[in-house]
Every structure is written in C-alpha cells, then in structure tokens.
Write the structure tokens for this entry.
Amino acid sequence: ARGRSAPKIFPDEIDGYERTKEGSQIGLIWQRAATFGDERLLFETSTPTIKGASLIESAFEQGDQRRWHCECPHCQTFQYLKWSQVNWQKDSEGEHLPETAVYVCESCGVCWDDADRFLAIRKGRWIAAKPFKRHASFHLPEMCSLFRKLGDIVQSFLEKKRSGDIQTFINVSLAETFEEKGQQFKHTVLMERAEVYECDVPDEVCILVRAVDVQKDRLEIKVKGFGVGEESWDIDYKILRGDPTSQRLWDQLDVELSNTYRHANGSIMTCAATGIDSGAFTDHVYRFVKPREMAGVYALKGRGQEGLPLVNRGSRSNKYRVNVFTVGTWAGKDLIYRRYEIEEPGAGYLHFKKSPVFDEEYFRQLCSEKKVTRFHLGKARSEWLKIRDRNEAFDLENYCLAVLYLLSPNLDALARELSETPAERHEKQQARNVTSAVSDNHWINAGSEWL
C-alpha cells in the first residue's frame, strides 16, 4: 500500500519495474523505510536485461561486487566461474557434443568434469571485488548450480544460439546483461548470402505463407517458405500498382492468392495463409478479407511496443466483424535481426534468393531500421527507428513470420510428409481410405443393431 512502510523490503525482478511520475518505485519504497534508520534492509533480486538499462546491474556495480569463487581441485586456486572457460568437443562432421563439456581452470589449465565442479562449488566462498561500504552485491550464474550438468547448460546455449535467442541465455543462464550489437545491419552482408534455387521451392521448405503490405499507390506481396527450426527461404516478391480504393487492384490480389509454386519433390504448393496489413485503407482491407477468412486470409494490425508478443489474440471489434490480429512488430524485428546474424544454415537461418525481384533496394529495405535505447521518465526503453523512407520489405518479413506464428504448424511433421515418395503418399492415402470405410461400416452396423 502507498501509505505503508516496513523495515525490510524484498523487491523481485526489478528490471521489469517502471518508473512512475513520482520517481523510481524502489526509491519511493526505500524512502518510506527511512524512519527505521539502521534497522532497514533492501534486498533486490532480478534477472538482468539490457546493458546500460538494467537496474540490477547498476545496483550490483554500486555494491562490493561479490562472486562465488571456487577452489580448483588440482591447483587449489580460487576463481569465479566464467563462460569463456567452458569447452566442449565436436565430432568428425563438425557437430557439437555438449556431453563432452568441461570447465578449464584458468590457472593450471586442467579440465574439471561435473564432479570436480560440484566439489569446487561446495568448497567455494564469496569474494568481493570492492570494499564493503554498507552495500553488498552478489552475482551467481547457472554454472554455480549443483542441479545443472555443464552439458545441459551447453545444450541450452546451442539451442538459443541456433534460434537467434542468445539474449535469453546471457540474461538467464549467465546472469549478465545483454549488450545489443548488430542492430543496424549492413544490407551488403545479406546480399552476399543470396543463392540460386534449383526450383521454385527448395527441398527443405515444408510450408509457404504470404504477406501483403498496403501502400497508397500499390500492394507489395511477399511469399516466404519455412522449414524445420523456422529456417526460411524467400520465394517470391511482387508489386501490384494501382489505387487501393479501386476494386480492380483487389481483383488482381485475388488472382495472386491462387498462385502455385513447384516444390523440389515435384509437388505443387500453395500458400497456407495470407496476412494483409490493415493499418492503411482499413475498410477496403476488411471488405476483402471478410469473405476469405475461412480460406486462410487474415487481417493484421502492426503495433510497435516493447513487451508486446509477436502475435496477439484476434479481435472482431469492428463493424465488419473481421478477426483482426495485432502483430507486435518490435518483437518480430528483434527476432529477425538476431537471425540476420546466424551464419550457418539450420534453425533460424534466413536464405535469400538471387533473383531480379530481390534487388539491392529490397536488401536495403531489409536493413531500413535500427534499434536504439532511449530514456523516458528516467526509465530506459528500446525502440525501433527508420533510417530510410522505404521499409516495406522489412515489414513484410515481419508479417510473414507473424502469419507462421498465427498458424503454429508442426514443421517437423510437415517435413516428414514432404519427404515421402509419391508411392508412399499413395499407399498412405489408400490406408486412410480403408480406415474410413471400416469406420463407416462400423457405424452403420452399430446403427442397425440399435434399430
């Protein structure tokens, strides 16, 4: 309660606190405890977030900076555990082997297994980096846990890295702040990665989605393919010129919805769903979407806000009763920029198609925004800002990802189905037909018995 005070205060996850008009929430609570004098205690805990904007990092640096130091079982040197000292092996094909993970003593270079590490942790002690001046601060990463094997931590790191979510590992597992870098990507780096496809849709693609951006004189359309681990491929990009208030332009889009693409296995694919940005010419978008919702055509509404998930629950609070899905564009942009940094094909990797439709302007638009940290009422927050006028390709990349998340398909199962030969698919379909016939007979017999 605002009018109450207490001698002991235990705020948790303080990096999620917002600054009020009166000031910092923690500062206000601490001030109310001033009447207790030397008896008052403030115990702050939190998972750190962004470097330079983390309250818990600031509190740690203001204190005596204690870390849990472990004694090496071999040379008896005390040291605190650092991620840079964790090593593991790869097999002959370059695959990571997290089960081989060891901790390398920074003094004698001897490798600790989990048993050595657990023993060192049990014999450890807190050692401060600065003199104590009425403010103790502590740092404890996941490597100091007696309940986590080093191989499991390495596995978590590899998974987060492959999916482009390394920030979660740094914040949660290492208990360190994440320093944003690479948030303004060079378009030439992406252009150099462009590749020639042997057919419309590469073999690894198991689903196609489409996104449409509505501008005052055109519709821009992007088709994107996704595979296992959300590895993705640019498939097609078109611009339909015309007035969005005219029926003719929407008729052209209707034709585009029926376009097909040949998969590497010989099958013909269509887009599983289409998302249309309804931020401009909203009434025209809703009128187009309404009769096509059951066919997988959705109205999207982009919203740039920190903390908003990529796809939110749909709402029909409009006169057309169209289900409109809000897209947290900043969440999508964070994920896309992290995936730009993935350099090896696999989970999260983006493949770019070498084609005249994906020209240099397209790649410039993919890198048309940058992330900055600004302070509002003393609270740091991240924002995405345009650094050039044209950014439609970046928006469409975001909307394609949103459509995929809206569908939430089982990519592994789809990939298995596409890997089947025509004969295997025919045999499976025949089995389904037989099962269906047996099921129908069962119900007929049961009905006859009842009669």
About this structure: DSSP finds 13 helices and 20 strands in the chain. The chain has a mean pLDDT of 88. Residues 279 and 301 are 6 Å apart (CA to CA). The radius of gyration is 28 Å.
